[in-house]
């Protein structure tokens, strides 16, 4: 059907959404404020969970949370992930009501089936997740929580697609605060176990689902009726291929992020209780380093629209220059943060964590190493988003996943938890090398200094004296030489620092 006939056959479609939207600039500001505040709450919550939970229960929660993040998009076939692409498409065609109705029904049915199967085969699920059938009673709680997680993800994706960032901010704010408050409350007054944490997360997600449902019901009345309802076959033929591709990418990236913990459970050669305790040690080593990943994701999300604008104007070389600068600056800043974390970690583990996680402190250098590399992989992925080659992300994460499984199978039985974390670090090294190689194959100009800075995080795993000494040399070169940043990049960095300084002074 031609564009003209589409317009003629559609009821009067407003040029702007009938629901209230948020501007791009305001969305970015909300995103920045939300991320900083949420990560602060999450950090305090994570520290207190480590302090109050026994290592085995902390490991159990880590495995459950990893499963929820993996299974959430999995059970609904990635359909909510397509909202960002198709909400506006069907709104402009006057078919938004049909789109929302069909995708909502499909999401509810698929999540009910998936969670029902999880409940029905709870003993088998306990063996797969924990290698311990005696933990089967916790699976029904996980199944109910999964339904709430699917609902929470659904509304977040929907309101982002509808450009209602105030609502997204409200949902995530309420979810984060409730999870912390209820979780810490249950640990203090109900039971010091992973079940209390799972329940609190499920309750927090359920409350936000109710909030999202109320807002959707209000906005539903403003969505115009459809003049032409697309055939079911035509509708799903268009939607499912895109959703399936996103589903595959989410599956591979989420597996890449969690597979090492499940390898510990199934391939460490330890009993279920001992392996889950190791996962608890591992979790303690990730509490602080994972904040760097969140910050890197924030800056990547803010930078992407600007990179996309340059790309659309045909300024491909400028995109390459900005991404090289982002990768190098990120590596320098995160290495500095990692060194500070490493030097102060003994105080955190000894006094705040009460000496319960000596294994976590031991593997912290390699945890920091792979967190920096994982963040750099995310930065490199921005190029594929600009070039509309997001399928390359599936290749990178697929190869990284295979490497992670293979290296864990080799190193985990020999070195225990250290082997698992080193294997994950090496898998992330493979992922960043592959991401940069494929970006170069698709036109990105990779600087030699970018390769140097991308390799530098390896020094973190060799010990703080070596890492700090080399970082000081790199910092001196960044300031006085041209090995790290050239003159144009220095001018860009100093210009950004000057703008931030002036804004800060103007508000004080």
TrEMBL record:
<feature type="transmembrane region" description="Helical">
    <location>
        <begin position="417"/>
        <end position="439"/>
    </location>
</feature>
<feature type="transmembrane region" description="Helical">
    <location>
        <begin position="325"/>
        <end position="343"/>
    </location>
</feature>
<dbReference type="InterPro" id="IPR050833">
    <property type="entry name" value="Poly_Biosynth_Transport"/>
</dbReference>
<feature type="transmembrane region" description="Helical">
    <location>
        <begin position="392"/>
        <end position="411"/>
    </location>
</feature>
<dbReference type="Pfam" id="PF01943">
    <property type="entry name" value="Polysacc_synt"/>
</dbReference>
<feature type="transmembrane region" description="Helical">
    <location>
        <begin position="60"/>
        <end position="79"/>
    </location>
</feature>
<feature type="transmembrane region" description="Helical">
    <location>
        <begin position="196"/>
        <end position="218"/>
    </location>
</feature>
<feature type="transmembrane region" description="Helical">
    <location>
        <begin position="451"/>
        <end position="476"/>
    </location>
</feature>
<feature type="transmembrane region" description="Helical">
    <location>
        <begin position="133"/>
        <end position="156"/>
    </location>
</feature>
<keyword id="KW-1003">Cell membrane</keyword>
<keyword id="KW-1133">Transmembrane helix</keyword>
<dbReference type="InterPro" id="IPR002797">
    <property type="entry name" value="Polysacc_synth"/>
</dbReference>
<feature type="transmembrane region" description="Helical">
    <location>
        <begin position="28"/>
        <end position="48"/>
    </location>
</feature>
<dbReference type="GO" id="GO:0005886">
    <property type="term" value="C:plasma membrane"/>
</dbReference>
<feature type="transmembrane region" description="Helical">
    <location>
        <begin position="239"/>
        <end position="256"/>
    </location>
</feature>
<keyword id="KW-0812">Transmembrane</keyword>
<feature type="transmembrane region" description="Helical">
    <location>
        <begin position="99"/>
        <end position="121"/>
    </location>
</feature>
<feature type="transmembrane region" description="Helical">
    <location>
        <begin position="363"/>
        <end position="385"/>
    </location>
</feature>
<protein>
    <submittedName>
        <fullName>MurJ-like flippase</fullName>
    </submittedName>
</protein>
<keyword id="KW-0472">Membrane</keyword>
<feature type="transmembrane region" description="Helical">
    <location>
        <begin position="287"/>
        <end position="304"/>
    </location>
</feature>
<feature type="transmembrane region" description="Helical">
    <location>
        <begin position="168"/>
        <end position="190"/>
    </location>
</feature>
């Amino acid at each position: 059907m031609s564009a003209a006939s589409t317009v003629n056959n559609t009821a009067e479609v407003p040029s702007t959404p009938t629901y209230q939207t948020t501007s791009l600039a305001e969305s970015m500001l909300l995103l920045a404020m939300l991320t900083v505040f949420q990560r602060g709450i999450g950090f305090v919550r994570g520290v207190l969970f480590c302090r109050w939970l026994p290592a085995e229960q902390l490991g159990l929660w880590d495995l459950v949370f990893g499963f929820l993040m993996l299974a959430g998009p999995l059970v609904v076939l990635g359909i909510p992930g397509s909202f960002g692409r198709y909400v506006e498409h069907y709104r402009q065609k006057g078919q938004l009501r049909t789109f929302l109705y069909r995708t909502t029904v499909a999401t509810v049915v698929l999540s009910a089936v998936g969670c029902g199967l999880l409940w029905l085969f709870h003993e088998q699920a306990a063996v797969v997740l924990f290698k311990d059938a005696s933990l089967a009673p916790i699976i029904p709680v996980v199944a109910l929580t999964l339904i709430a997680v699917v609902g929470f993800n659904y509304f977040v994706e929907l309101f982002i697609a509808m450009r209602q960032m105030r609502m997204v901010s409200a949902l995530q704010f309420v979810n984060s605060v409730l999870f912390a408050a209820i979780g810490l409350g249950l640990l203090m007054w109900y039971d010091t176990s992973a079940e209390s944490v799972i329940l609190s997360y499920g309750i927090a997600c359920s409350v936000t689902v109710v909030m999202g449902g109320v807002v959707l019901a209000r906005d539903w009345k403003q969505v115009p009726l459809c003049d032409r309802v697309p055939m079911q076959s035509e509708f799903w033929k268009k939607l499912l291929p895109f959703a399936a591709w996103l589903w595959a990418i989410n599956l591979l990236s989420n597996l890449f992020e969690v597979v090492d913990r499940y390898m510990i459970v199934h391939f460490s050669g330890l009993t279920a209780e001992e392996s889950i305790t190791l996962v608890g040690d591992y979790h303690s080593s990730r509490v602080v380093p994972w904040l760097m990943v969140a910050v890197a994701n924030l800056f990547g999300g803010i930078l992407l629209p600007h990179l996309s604008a340059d790309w659309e104007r045909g300024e491909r070389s400028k995109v390459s220059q900005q991404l090289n600068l982002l990768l190098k600056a990120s590596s320098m800043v995160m290495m500095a943060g990692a060194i500070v974390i490493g030097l102060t970690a003994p105080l955190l583990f000894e006094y705040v964590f009460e000496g319960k996680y000596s294994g976590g402190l031991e593997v912290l250098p390699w945890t920091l190493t792979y967190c920096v590399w994982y963040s750099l992989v995310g930065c490199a992925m921005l190029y594929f988003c600009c070039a509309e080659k997001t399928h390359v992300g599936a290749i990178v994460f697929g190869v990284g996943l295979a490497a992670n499984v293979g290296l864990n199978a080799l190193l985990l039985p020999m070195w225990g938890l250290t082997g698992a974390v080193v294997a994950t670090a090496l898998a992330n090294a493979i992922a960043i090398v592959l991401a940069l190689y494929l970006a170069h194959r698709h036109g990105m100009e990779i600087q030699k200094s970018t390769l140097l800075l991308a390799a530098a995080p390896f020094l973190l795993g060799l010990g703080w004296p070596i890492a700090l000494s080399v970082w000081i040399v790199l910092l001196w070169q960044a300031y006085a030489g041209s090995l790290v940043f050239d003159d144009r990049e220095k001018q860009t960095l100093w210009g950004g620092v000057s703008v931030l300084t002036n804004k800060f002074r103007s508000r004080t």
